[in-house]
Design a protein that fits this description.
single chain; mainly alpha; MetI-like fold
């Protein structure tokens, strides 16, 4: 009986801060201002197809870049020990110790027309270049903010791979390329999926990065939802419909991760 009583605060917290908001968003998504049932909120979303496509495209580009940078870095961290390992880990975690908006806003001083980067190019007789208020700046902000979420899951999985498995693959005649392709990467695939999910989901729904580095010129899903709840285009029912679609996307991604998460310890064949 006492063990059940301990869980009551957790159940109350879940009901108040998780279940209740989801129920409210679902109700608002399928109703109008007068409370009647409607599908119109979802039909209206077709007007913002460009924002959907743009959000998914930029999020996909940021996710690919994070993977291309994050996997070699995670592999290096898992294989390296000593002061270099500690230093690299600290540099990866350092941005996460600062406020999200603060570290994003700092890039505006670097990318603006008279910022440090353009000053450097000016010393070389180049520029100035238009780097701020562009889609490239938004992708850069996504990569900078979410790269640790790609590195850490992959590092955690690679670090747990038994060295004896690698040694056995090498004893069977596999060179470094074959061992990585047939052993290391398949065993690290659950971490890759987790990293992709943890980068893609916040990237596709971000609004602070596009607002600060995109100058409000690039409309993403996060900005669209923000406008429906807090902007001049106040329409919480449409905003709820968009948010509900985003939640479905999150659930699908989590289902994919759970589907492949248990395959970490599967056998490997050369």
């Amino acid at each position: 009986m006492k063990s059940k009583a301990i869980s009551y605060p957790y159940v109350a917290w879940m009901a108040l801060f998780v279940v209740a908001p989801i129920v409210m968003i679902t109700v608002y998504a399928f109703t109008t201002a007068d409370g009647s049932f409607t599908w119109a909120n979802f039909a209206t979303m077709t007007q913002f197809a460009a924002a959907f496509g743009r959000s998914f495209l930029l999020a996909a580009i940021a996710t690919v870049i994070c993977f291309l940078i994050g996997y070699p870095l995670a592999y290096f961290l898992a294989r390296e020990r000593g002061w270099l390992h500690r230093m690299a880990t600290m540099l990866i975690m350092l941005p996460m110790w600062m406020n999200f908006l603060l570290r994003t806003y700092s890039w505006t001083f670097l990318l603006e027309r008279h910022g440090l980067i353009n000053r450097f190019f000016g010393m070389l007789g180049l520029g100035p270049f238009q780097m701020i208020d562009t889609q490239g700046a938004i992708v850069l902000g996504m990569v900078y903010n979410f790269l640790p979420y790609m590195v850490l899951p992959i590092f955690s999985v690679i670090d747990k791979i038994d060295p004896k498995v690698i040694e056995a693959a090498q004893d069977l005649g596999g060179n470094a390329s074959v061992v990585f392709r047939r052993v290391t990467f398949p065993l690290s695939f659950p971490g890759v999926l987790s990293g992709i999910t943890m980068v893609f989901i916040p990237s596709v729904s971000t609004f602070a990065i596009s607002g600060l580095l995109g100058g409000g010129k690039t409309l993403l899903l996060g900005n669209l939802i923000d406008m429906q709840f807090l902007g001049n285009a106040y329409n919480p029912h449409l905003g709820s419909a968009i948010s509900l679609v985003m939640m479905v996307i999150v659930m699908v991604c989590m289902a994919v991760v759970n589907r492949f998460g248990d395959s970490e310890q599967q056998g490997v064949t050369l």
